[in-house]
Amino acid sequence: MQINKKRAGRVRTISGWLVAGLLMVATFAAGCGPKIDPASKDPSKQGQDTGNKTGAKEYLFATGGTGGTYYPLGGAIANVWNQRINELHVTVQSTGASVENMKLLGNKETELAMAINSIAHDAYNGKGAFTKPIKNFRAVGVIYPEVIQIVTPKNSSIKSLEDLKGKRVSTGPAGSGTAVAAEQILEAYGIKLSELKVFQDTFTDAATKLKDGNLDAAFAILSVPAANIEDIATSKDVRILPVTGQGLETLKRNHPFYTDYVIPANTYKGQSEDVRTVSMQAVLYAREDLPEDIVYQITKTMYEQKDEIAKGYAIGKQISLEKALSGITVPLHSGAEKFYKEKGMK
After folding, report:
1. What pLDDT does residue 3 have?
2. Among 44, 176, 242, 259, which residue is least crowded by beta carbons within 10 Å?
3. How many structural domains compose the chain?
4. Residue 88 dihedral angles phi and psi, to the nearest 5°
5. What's the predicted TM-score (pTM) here?
6. What is the CATH number of the domain that holds 292?
7. Residue 28 has pLDDT above 60, yes or no
8. How confident is the model over 242-267, as pLDDT tens digits?
């Protein structure tokens, strides 16, 4: 397939051997991604990218930055697709993640994309970062949960969201998914940003400030367990604030893409009880005009070969057919819908 210059400039091609190296580098550099299984460090155990196949459809898969989760996880998924689906060859793109990925789909600069469901919801409805609706994409299915984790030292006086008033709180970088979520959650609890001393740190920076006593609490959207929170807990016990009660009900009523999530006790040092919070979902999206049979195979392979994907990147273990439709608010692609109907899900 001819890839135009605009598309080609965004492309990072992942071979089976290259993914193995990138996964190790990305995980250490990010400091906030999931831990990699020992098997993923061994190139001989990686799914091998089969390369361009004669007559295969060439698709681009928009993911995220090389130091985050989306890019290496996308590489692991793409390798399994390339192994298992003869009619398809997928090349992974490194991008600015969810907002950019929705725009790439809208401009037909990629065929597949990974994004937080809340951002896709905004894109489809022309809200937030999107001045007009993007209607030419469809949902394929949930990949893994992106969990809201509001962290504070356990020895602080902050025990609930209401206790954040007047405190030094990082709500995430301006315009980020974390910042949007923080504002939505606070609003559901009747708390204004002006009532906080707001910092707009990345969570890596916020974690350092929490360890050093220069911040009271921080919002984050991370997988569970999160390496950066584990790092904080090496120097001080942590408390994860619960998202419960009437505020939770208001949040889900106003923003239906949030779903309940429980962080098990002892996930982090000092966290002795289960914590109820909410999650959004990292979801696979596809252009509406992709053939039904190809998207059917993409969906089937992703859910039925999750163990193989997890060999490439450990968070692949969290791919779950039972949660495939959780929090999805945009229409399904007909190929994905066909697969779910076969499974008696829709």
Report:
1. 40
2. 44
3. 2
4. -140, 140
5. 0.74
6. 3.40.190.10
7. no
8. 999 999 999 999 998 898 999 999 99
